Amino acid sequence: MAHYSVSKAVVTGGARGLGRAIGERLAREGLSVALLDVNEVGVKETAAEIAEATSAHVIGLGCDVTDRPGLQEVFRRAAEELGGLDTLVGNAGITRDRMFHKLSDDDWDQVIAVNLTGVFDCLRSAAPWLRAEGPGRVVLISSVVAKTGNLGQMNYIAAKAGVVGLVRSAAVELARFDTTVNGVRPGFIETAMTAAMPEEARDALMTDNLLKRAGRPEDIAGAVAYLCSDDASFVTGQVLDVNGGSAL
Ligand code: NDP
């Protein structure tokens, strides 16, 4: 059984999809969890369901990761409710897919704001606790397409490649506080995000891997749990591919 020296986690984008699965897995491992999501009603419901299923301390807080002034207050509230904060999972993300010559300024700005700047701002908002508490864990969610490229996702891929840069540089800066920083590059996983893709492209991409199946949110949650556990205490600055062996 894995052991955890950390015990108080914030997971962004936690109302559904990967964030929900990650929050539930960490709660099952015994961590107290604050789920943050722009969908305030949804995230409170999700937190209540996970708390009931796991008997862990799980709360849901409304939070838009692009709301710079509001973000620090949300992290302060999360830390107050959890009795501190030693783990951050930067998961919230959106897509606005179009071929690049058709991308509007807003398509570019929104995706960069949520998927890259939002991750940085969450990291910065969590920093006072991560620097003070030690040991700590940060796991940031990138994407397989940051490695391979893809049609119609230049804004998303630029942001997700930027997340890999955040992982590497934050690992260097937070090591002195006994905090590891790693990333996960999921392949295509069955969530609302991929349900929005055109059906034909989705079906082909989902099983374009050695294991010939779509990824499940639990596959990513398991990888995040490992990176948060003591088994990964000597792993930092790494980005783990969890994609069924696609893009080898
Ligand atoms: P979902 O769209 O299913 O869930 C994302 C959650 O984040 C939603 O609850 C959404 O709220 C919330 N959210 C969106 N914008 C913000 C914001 N500004 N502030 C706070 N919360 C926000 O996505 P997935 O679970 O599929 O994806 C999770 C992460 O994994 C993303 O970063 C994604 O890029 C990445 N990823 C996903 C893959 C996949 O195949 N699913 C593959 C590779 C990476 P709302 O419902 O209101 O939009």
UniProtKB/TrEMBL annotation:
<dbReference type="InterPro" id="IPR057326">
    <property type="entry name" value="KR_dom"/>
</dbReference>
<protein>
    <submittedName>
        <fullName>3-oxoacyl-[acyl-carrier-protein] reductase</fullName>
    </submittedName>
</protein>
<feature type="domain" description="Ketoreductase">
    <location>
        <begin position="7"/>
        <end position="185"/>
    </location>
</feature>
<dbReference type="InterPro" id="IPR036291">
    <property type="entry name" value="NAD(P)-bd_dom_sf"/>
</dbReference>
<comment type="similarity">
    <text>Belongs to the short-chain dehydrogenases/reductases (SDR) family.</text>
</comment>
<dbReference type="Pfam" id="PF13561">
    <property type="entry name" value="adh_short_C2"/>
</dbReference>
<dbReference type="InterPro" id="IPR050259">
    <property type="entry name" value="SDR"/>
</dbReference>
<dbReference type="InterPro" id="IPR002347">
    <property type="entry name" value="SDR_fam"/>
</dbReference>
